[in-house]
């Protein structure tokens, strides 16, 4: 059976989307290729027609997850005035929905520890995604002092999310989200 020319790219996209979700939910080592392909409703044998290795899929999934978060935050700030920009980012990021659904949320708190054990390509992809979020939160062309403040904000957001997820459903979870959200 012949497939249309765009079929291979569409199938690859399904695999990446399923992997981005699964890796954020289970961790990189918490799910295998066979389970990922099953989640994408594809056969395990077709994986290598799209990726050379699981490591290559991890990089594509990291890129896709960062793009998803960037899009979500851009939407959150689209109607915000320049004075409300950072507040809109904090409110969107430090939400109960984000806390309760890591599989659809930011890749940094979900995979940060995993990435530290991955290869240089994955680490570069992760660093690129972090830099894109820094620019989104603080704006492009920040001076070094403003960039440092933005990095501090991002670190507090990520750390707050990690802590809030760790103690959920305890009331402390919401207290952490509120405290970090109100820091600025």
Automatic annotation (TrEMBL):
The question of whether DNA-binding is a record keyword is answered with yes
The answer to keyword S-adenosyl-L-methionine applying to this record is no
Q: Which InterPro entries match?
A: Homeodomain-like_sf, HTH_TetR, Tet_transcr_reg_TetR-rel_C_sf
Q: Which Gene3D superfamilies match?
A: Homeodomain-like, Tetracycline Repressor, domain 2
Q: Drop me one GO molecular function for this one.
A: DNA binding
- Annotated HTH tetR-type domain residues: 9-69
Q: Which domain of life is it from?
A: Bacteria
What are the DNA-binding region positions?
Answer: 32-51
Keyword vocabulary terms for this entry:
DNA-binding, Transcription, Transcription regulation
Q: What is this protein called?
A: TetR/AcrR family transcriptional regulator
């Amino acid at each position: 059976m012949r497939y249309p020319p765009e079929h291979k790219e569409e199938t690859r996209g399904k695999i990446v989307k399923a992997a981005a979700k699964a890796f954020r939910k289970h961790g990189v080592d918490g799910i295998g290729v066979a389970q990922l392909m099953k989640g994408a409703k594809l056969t395990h044998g077709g994986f290598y027609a799209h990726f050379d290795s699981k490591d290559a899929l991890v990089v594509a999934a990291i890129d896709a997850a960062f793009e998803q978060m960037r899009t979500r935050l851009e939407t959150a700030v689209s109607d915000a005035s320049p004075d409300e920009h950072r507040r809109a980012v904090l409110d969107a990021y430090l939400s109960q929905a984000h806390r309760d659904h890591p599989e659809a949320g930011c890749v940094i708190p979900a995979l940060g520890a995993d990435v530290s054990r991955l290869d240089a390509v994955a680490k570069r992809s992760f660093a690129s995604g972090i830099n894109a979020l820094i620019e989104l939160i603080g704006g492009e062309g920040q001076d070094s002092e403003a960039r440092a403040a933005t990095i501090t904000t991002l670190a507090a957001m990520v750390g707050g999310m990690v802590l809030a997820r760790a103690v959920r459903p305890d009331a402390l979870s919401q207290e952490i989200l509120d405290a970090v959200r109100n820091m600025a």
